[in-house]
Amino acid sequence: MRRLIRWLLDAGPILTLAAIAGAGSFTHIRDTAAEHGQDGWMAWAVAVCVDLTCVMAARERQRDRHTGRTRNGWISWPTLVLIAGIVLSLAANLNQADPSPWGWITAATPAGAFLVAVSMLERRAASPRPESSPASSSVPEIAPEPVPAFDAEQDGPSSELLDYARRVAKEYQTAHSKPISRDTLRARLGVSHQLASDLLRILRISPDAL
């Protein structure tokens, strides 16, 4: 219930703006279509086509961003469709305006507000995921190896564990371009905090550690 309330408080204003602005723009497009020979249900159909085309194009732009299809430039088919829908909507709004500067401004407000609301929803849908998700997916999981924690002949981590820790640290630095932390090393090796600290200290002072 709390999650629903937070979502309504967060997205409610944008959805309300989109609904009101869309209705205003819809009315202007319908009236313009009716004045130019599209009577009855056809006037409503033209208005629905223009507004839904803008929404559909915005969603396609967001989907292209996720799939990487926009890396070659910002101009794409969904972008061109969105621009065309905006131009048609603004043209219909201005056609219904009083022939004065303020008349044009007030008549264009619903189309502009609708575009802002759609762009805000598109921006939220395209927000990047938490940093940990792509990082964890890009780093291959290392299968646990049965390595002894301590060497029986010396007081400190065993050579097998040290080699394993060195390999984990190298792979982490290659993937993230930064040294591995103690907590990450502890989680990857499944050792105690103290042992992870000892291993990290040895790796940092060893010439061939990283």
Helix-strand blueprint:
Blueprint: H1 2-35, H2 41-67, H3 77-95, H4 101-125, H5 132-138, H6 159-176, H7 182-189, H8 193-205
Pfam family, one: DUF2637
Keywords: Membrane, Transmembrane, Transmembrane helix
Biased composition (Low complexity): 127-144
What does this structure look like?
- The protein is an all-alpha fold and 210 residues long.
- It folds into two domains: 2-125, no CATH class; 132-205.
- It contains eight helices and no strands.
- The chain has helices at residues 2-35, 41-67, 77-95, 101-125, 132-138, 159-176, 182-189, 193-205.
- α1 (2-35) crosses α3, α1 crosses α4 and α2 (41-67) crosses α4.
- The radius of gyration is 29 Å and the shape is elongated.
- The protein starts with a helix and ends in a 5-residue tail after the last helix.
- Residues 127-156 are annotated as: Disordered.
- The chain crosses the membrane at residues 7-29, 41-58, 79-96, 102-121.
- InterPro entries: DUF2637 (IPR021235).
Please tally the helical runs, counting DSSP H or I stretches of 4 or more residues.
Answer: 8
- Gross morphology is elongated
User: How many strands appear in the DSSP assignment?
Assistant: 0
Report the β-strand fraction as a percent range: under 5%
Rounded Rg: 29 Å
Classify the secondary structure makeup into a structural class.
mainly alpha
Tally of structural domains: 2
Assembly annotation: single chain
Unreliable runs:
129-141, 143-148, 150-154
Helix content: over 70%
Question: What does this entry show, briefly?
Answer:
By secondary structure, the protein is an all-alpha fold. It has helices spanning 2-35, 41-67, 77-95, 101-125, 132-138, 159-176, 182-189, 193-205. Helix 1 crosses helix 3, helix 1 packs across helix 4 and helix 2 (41-67) packs antiparallel against helix 3 (77-95).
